[in-house]
Design brief:
This protein has one helix and 15 strands, in the order αβββββββββββββββ. It is mainly β. It has a 15-stranded antiparallel β-sheet that branches. It starts with 34 loop residues before the first helix and ends with a strand.
């Protein structure tokens, strides 16, 4: 879970390591889980669920001409049972970006940004706070210097949360440092922190109301450009198509802090396919 820099280095960032509508434990067809339980699990980034979320973002007032940027985050989540007491939850986030010109005379860009790959070692026991820790990697998978950092990155990630009745609350954090370039062109170093506090309330009809802050702090840019901090609200619903469960969500966000050419507000929709997982 947690942030990856894309777009023009040292100027504009997108916090994609942190996308929240993350899924949890998948169901088997023999023992289907109630929609309410699945909805609560979707609020848990380290729950034992195989899922494929597609997150659509329309970010407004981007660049010198205050235009629209579109970001599609493809972010599958796959848990692995290491033992009776431990799981390992792997997450991959691949942003696909359609971006307007950031400066006068610039060009619009389309392509993939850097992949963020994270993994959480999480105990399976219950009775206390739910937590997970592990590594996070930034993979420079784009050849467009505007859409990616051009750097290999690595760092730690962690999440802690509590689920009490219909409530889920907690926080996810990570930090990425660059350690190598992808080619002959020298690019700016990467050192950025991501913090995502979240709060969710799930009703008996499998509707979830959520609020979170996907805050990224870039340690390498000049003062006044360091924070990108949207406050997001959303409503999601778990339902079924025949025997197959899925979640649909919609919402929006306002950037309480952003770089000069960064977005000021956004709309978001999410479709999450929940897949069976054998026990």
């Amino acid at each position: 879970m947690i942030g990856t820099g894309i777009f023009r280095p040292r100027t504009l960032r997108i916090a994609s390591a942190c996308i929240f509508s993350l899924p949890a434990l998948g169901q088997t067809q023999e023992q289907p889980q109630p929609e309410e339980e699945l909805a609560k699990q979707l609020s848990n980034p380290v729950a034992d669920l195989v899922s494929i979320p597609l997150q659509f973002n329309w970010e407004n007032d981007v660049g010198s001409d205050e235009e629209l940027r579109f970001v599609l985050n493809f972010q599958p989540v796959v848990p692995f049972s290491l033992s009776e007491n431990w799981n390992f939850i792997g997450r991959l986030i691949l942003p696909i970006v359609s971006q307007p010109a950031l400066t006068p005379g610039g060009e619009a860009e389309f392509g993939t940004s850097d992949i963020v790959l994270s993994g959480f070692f999480s105990p399976t026991g219950s009775g206390g706070p739910i937590w997970g820790v592990g590594p996070v990697f930034g993979l420079p998978t784009t050849t467009d210097p505007v859409l990616g950092t051009g750097k290999w990155q690595v760092g730690p990630t962690a999440v802690v949360l509590k689920q009490t009745g219909p409530w889920t609350y907690g926080a996810l954090v990570n930090h990425l440092w660059s350690f190598a370039d992808t080619g002959d062109i020298e690019r700016d170093d990467v050192s950025k922190s991501f913090v995502q506090p979240f709060l969710a309330f799930t009703t008996g009809t499998a509707v979830t109301y959520s609020i979170n802050a996907e805050s990224t702090y870039d340690w390498e840019v000049e003062s006044g450009e360091k924070w990108t901090a949207p406050i997001n609200v959303s409503i999601s619903k778990v339902t079924r198509l025949g025997p197959f469960p899925f979640s649909i969500a919609g919402g929006g966000g306002y950037f309480v802090a952003h770089p000069e050419i960064g977005p000021e507000w956004k709309l978001r929709s999410v479709f999450t396919l929940i897949l069976p997982r054998g026990k």
